[in-house]
């Protein structure tokens, strides 16, 4: 088995695509617009996404819905980065919101940071020096 994607409902599809591509450095992999069903989707990911063995994020915009309540069960998406502090600097410079600066996890040594996307979804950056930038 393999995780293929995680779906997030977003209030503005183009704003979210800009965030994940321009701020987080992902690629826009494909889009679908279904006017008869009143929704549009964009898939983003690193490299070629599933074609490279990477999970993707499906951004779904339901026509006419500009905001969602964050459910209490949602936690975050985790992304491996070679240097969490450098990633935070790059993300902040591109207009991203850092909600927890890079530093060791409480009670441990793993370096993490948190970013928030335009819809309020949390993204954890986990430092893994062996990961390509």
What key attributes describe this structure?
2,3-Dihydroxybiphenyl 1,2-Dioxygenase, domain 1, Signal recognition particle alu RNA binding heterodimer, srp9/1, four-stranded mixed β-sheet
Describe this entry's structure for a reader:
- The structure is a single chain.
- It is built from two helices and eight strands; from the N terminus they run E-H-E-E-E-E-H-E-E-E.
- It is α/β, with parallel strands linked by helices.
- The protein folds into two domains: 5-62, 2,3-Dihydroxybiphenyl 1,2-Dioxygenase, domain 1; 77-127, Signal recognition particle alu RNA binding heterodimer, srp9/1.
- Strands 1-4-3-2 form a four-stranded mixed β-sheet, covered by helices on one side.
- Strand 7 and strand 8 (122-127) form a beta hairpin.
- The longest helix has 11 residues, at 13-23.
SSE diagram, text form:
Blueprint: E1 5-9, H1 13-23, E2 27-34, E3 39-45, E4 56-62, E5 77-81, H2 84-93, E6 97-104, E7 111-116, E8 122-127
Parallel strand pairs: 1-4, 5-8
Antiparallel strand pairs: 2-3, 3-4, 6-7, 7-8
Could you give a quick summary of the protein structure above?
With 133 residues, the chain is α/β, with parallel strands linked by helices. The chain has 2 domains: 5-62, Roll (2,3-Dihydroxybiphenyl 1,2-Dioxygenase, domain 1); 77-127, Signal recognition particle alu RNA binding heterodimer, srp9/1 (2-Layer Sandwich), CATH 3.30.720. The chain contains 2 helices and 8 strands; from the N terminus they run βαββββαβββ.
């Amino acid at each position: 088995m393999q995780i293929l994607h995680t779906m997030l409902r977003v209030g503005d599809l183009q704003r979210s695509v800009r965030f994940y591509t321009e701020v987080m450095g992902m690629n826009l992999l494909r889009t679908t617009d279904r006017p008869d069903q009143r929704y549009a989707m964009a898939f983003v990911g690193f490299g070629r996404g599933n074609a490279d063995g990477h999970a993707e994020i499906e951004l779904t915009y339901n026509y006419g819905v500009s905001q969602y309540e964050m459910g209490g069960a949602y936690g975050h998406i985790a992304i491996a980065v070679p240097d969490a502090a450098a990633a935070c600097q790059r993300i902040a410079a591109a207009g991203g919101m850092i909600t927890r600066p890079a530093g060791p996890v409480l009670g441990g040594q793993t370096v993490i940071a948190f970013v928030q996307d335009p819809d309020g979804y949390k993204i954890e950056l986990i430092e893994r020096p062996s990961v390509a930038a």
